[in-house]
Amino acid sequence: MGELERLRADLYAAVRNACLEEARELADGEPDLPLPTEAAIDEFSRWISTSAAPVANMRLAPQTQPFALGASRLIAAPDMPDRLAWPSHNGQPLAFLAQIDLSTLPGGIDWPVPRRGWIYFFLGTTTGSIEEGDPDASPNRTLFFNGDRPELRPRQLPQGITVPNEFKRAVPYSVSFELGLSVPMGNAGEIDTPWYQVPGMDGLDLGDLLLDRTPQIIPEDKSRMFGLPRNDQINDAQVEAASTMAEYAAATARKSLLERMMAPFRTPKPQPGPEQEAKHWCSLLSIGYIPDQFRWGDAQTYRVLVDERKARAGDFSQTFIYVSD
């Protein structure tokens, strides 16, 4: 049994046992209470374990010594090849947020990125704090280098960087990864909503049972690569990303003079709508709330989404950022 299969089996067993035990205790106290059957609990446990997606959970540690060349990190300064320019927006250099060495991701998983290379995350601000949206809403850029380690050079931070308030006091962190599972969840107030699709499971308070008790039956690491985006019926992050970035791409597209001249005489090709494109948008990076270090909203999480089709080809030019629980 591989590591991913073992994690799924462990999740199935833990969820099933917790639900069965809770149902028995409630039945002993209130015999007339409508509770899920053992078959319903088994179906729910199997669904949540098979629906879970692999995730590369970050293990963060404050770094006081210089980083090894190319090592994954938060803050500090990146190691980049000379040919990769430091990104800026309207002439203002962006703040460095993270460097990820893709070769250190847990093996044996088809991650939606190249198997080797480095991804660099930069983030700026026009108002002091970050705003959700396209690469220019809160200026953010994601760069990719697929060359060799000897081409990397430690970079000095350029003058004129304005660091967003959210991580102005953050210290450097080293980053390592551990394979985990990401289960379907909603956003604030809707976290356990996706779990009640199995008839009869509404007899249990699944959010309290599986998330809020100690130890957690379903732990969720806030700082991670990949995993399932948080969605709910009110604010579907994938649809919002697809819609926003389609508008951004159209607004920033560079068309030749001939294309502009011929446009009025051509019948536009039908384009897939945001609902169809949403399935291609995946979670790329999440950084959780760390007191006095990374202060995203009210103890929330900073998240970056990307079109998986482009990410697999090493294209991270269009990313969508948002902050949520």
Descriptive account of the structure:
There is one protein chain. The protein folds into two domains: 1-51 and 186-219; 54-183 and 222-324, YwqG-like (Hypothetical protein YwqG fold), CATH 2.30.320.10. The strands form three sheets. A ten-stranded antiparallel β-sheet has the order 8-7-6-2-10-1-11-12-13-14. A two-stranded antiparallel ribbon has the order 3-9. Strands 4-5 form a two-stranded antiparallel sheet. The chain has seven helices and 14 strands. It has helices at 3-29, 38-51, 206-212, 237-252, 257-262, 274-277, 308-312, and strands spanning 53-62, 73-74, 79-81, 88-89, 92-93, 95-101, 118-123, 140-145, 152-154, 173-182, 224-226, 281-287, 301-307, 319-324. It has 325 residues and is of the alpha+beta class. Helix 1 (3-29) packs antiparallel against helix 2.
Give the topology.
Layout: H1 3-29, H2 38-51, E1 53-62, E2 73-74, E3 79-81, E4 88-89, E5 92-93, E6 95-101, E7 118-123, E8 140-145, E9 152-154, E10 173-182, H3 206-212, E11 224-226, H4 237-252, H5 257-262, H6 274-277, E12 281-287, E13 301-307, H7 308-312, E14 319-324
Antiparallel strand pairs: 1-10, 1-11, 2-6, 2-10, 3-9, 4-5, 6-7, 7-8, 11-12, 12-13, 13-14
